[in-house]
Amino acid sequence: MDITKLKQILSERILVIDGAMGTQIQNRNLTAKDFGGPEYEGCNEYLNLTRPDVIQSIHEDYLEAGADIVETNTFGGTAIVLAEYALQNKVIEINRAGARLARAAADRLSTPDRPRLVAGAMGPTTKTLLVTGGVTFDQLSESFYLQTKGLIEGGADLLLLETAQDTLNLKAAAIGILKALNESGRDLPLMISATIERTGTMLAGQAVEALYTSLEHLPLFSIGLNCATGPEFMTDHIRSLAALATCYVSVYPNAGLPDEEGKYSETPESLSTKLARFADEGWLNMVGGCCGTTPEHIKAIAGMVSGKNPRVLQTNIKPAVSGIEYLPIEEDNRPIVVG
Q1: Measuring CA to CA, how many Å separate 331 from each of 74, 212, 216, 326, 328?
Q2: Each residue's pLDDT tens digit, 170-211
Q3: Could you tell me if residue 253 is inside a domain?
Q4: DSSP state of 148
Q5: Distance CA 6, CA 18 (A)
Q6: Residue 338 lies in a domain
Q7: What is d(CA 289, CA 270) in angstroms, rounded to the nearest whole number?
Q8: Cβ(291)–Cβ(263) under 8 Å?
Q9: Looking at the domain assignment, is residue 319 inside a domain?
Q10: Residue ranges with strand state E in 146-261
């Protein structure tokens, strides 16, 4: 989609992102045969090749429930993750297929007044530079470069780095993504969504203000939060992002916290009711669901945001610097000495 048209739509309404892919795959009761054999069981991304009908039907279920944006089934689509199943040589093929399936679903259910979009989903991988180690900056950059190539070739409209836990990983990913975009001649919007733990920071230690300050030099289309603990614990963080960001803001929380049986606590009604405050306060441009959410959750969220005004982007860049901590540069704390 043309970026100008997308911005026009976002100035008119809050867009709805789809819900959990993994939850829906689990509900299909697939067997090892569906995954291509016991050695691939659990690799949801490989289903793009072995059971494309299942993946496309999940996308269509979310679109029929009211989603404007569907995420590709490529969360673990980097070579770093796929290597755990000896599939690292199929990165471009798997991601291309994932984008094509979402594209087919979006095109089938798009209308002139309700275009549907495909976000190429890129998870944080299973390794982080600051928390786990075991990977280099260049390896991460190359992994996201290859994943992005596949997503572009498959027809993604947006590129979404989600569930981010380490800002250094994000910077490596951004280098790889921008390299792939430059080579393709495309200019797809870059979305970033982080996960804040109950401690109030990402696993690598940054809170949202420091995260945004560390990334605002990038061509960000949106910044937001997903996954984690559910909407209540996101409230202060989303408020802060909405006050800072000169780009769009997204949020798509889990359906609460799972119990000992793995069941999530938020019903469609309770989740949409809690997210209504975020919309009413003018903090949101895009909203959806993460782990544990279903088409029923997305239907309730779509109904909740219908007719609500989207967030207005900030126009003033607030001078600030950040490492682990966020430091605004203001008249009453000058001079700032950086050593």
Answers
A1: 46, 21, 22, 16, 10
A2: 999 999 999 999 999 999 999 999 999 988 999 888 999 999
A3: yes
A4: H
A5: 17
A6: no
A7: 13
A8: no
A9: yes
A10: 158-164, 190-194, 220-227, 248-253
DSSP H/E element including 123: none
* Count of domains forming the chain: 1
- Written as six digits, the tokens of 110 are 């798009």
AA identity, residue 97: A
| Tokens 């048209």 found at | 5
CATH number at residue 279: 3.20.20.330
Question: Per-residue pLDDT tens for 244-289?
Answer: 999 999 999 999 988 888 789 999 999 999 999 999 999 999 999 9
Report which of 216, 155, 174, 187 is spatially closest to residue 3, judged by C-alpha positions.
Answer: 187
Residues 130-152: tens digit of each pLDDT: 888 899 999 999 999 999 999 99
How confident is the model at residue 68, as a pLDDT?
Answer: 98
Q: 339 in a domain, yes or no?
A: no
Q: Which residues contact 22 (CB under 8 A, 6 or more apart)?
A: 44, 291
Tokens of 8: 């026009």
Range of the domain at 73: 3-333
Region 224-237 average pLDDT: 91
Contacts 24+ apart (CB under 8 A), 257-262: 257/229, 257/230, 258/291, 258/292
Q: Please, are residues 181 and 152 in contact by the beta-carbon 8 Å criterion?
A: yes
